[in-house]
Amino acid sequence: MAEKSENLVPGPGWASAHGYVPLNPASAEAGSSSAIDRLLILERLHRYSWALDECLQQPLAECFTEDATWTADLYGKEDYGPFEGAAGIAEWLAGSFVTMVDQRRHLFINPVVDELVEDAARVFSMCLITGAKDEIVTPRCTGIYRVGMRKIDGDWLIAELFGAFDAPW
Q1: Is residue 132 in a domain?
Q2: Interatomic CA distance for residues 102 and 63, integer angstroms
Q3: Disulfide-capable partner of 94 in 45, 57, 82, 128 (CB 3.0 to 4.6 Å)?
Q4: Which domain CATH number covers 55?
Q5: Domains held by the chain: number
């Protein structure tokens, strides 16, 4: 017999129910400069993943603004952070590298640039974290990312990264 959704932890749509994903309607107002900005924004997110998974503290710090914040919510039950500043965030994340017992891969899936103005953007993305050990790849966690981006001197950087995760990572 199927379990009722009110008994599930986390329940379906829990991140939206907590107000973490206030997704705007799609907009067709993207001009050519907007399209380039969207690509650069998504590339920054992918560079964050590469630096994180390859345990590269300096390239990780370079993904963030100097006043950036990183916070997470574990299925509405446990909070992490805020961790602040590019160097502080990279240092905290690097500290987690030594506790990993497998090779992690953080995948941004279905990213949507939800808001975009000249020097700021908001991105929503689903997240899949995998771990590889002894030639076996295992799903470790799923969730969503809400990312505030800021354009500084032509470079898109992460100003705020919030993860809402469905299970411990």
Answers
A1: yes
A2: 24
A3: 57
A4: 3.10.450.50
A5: 1
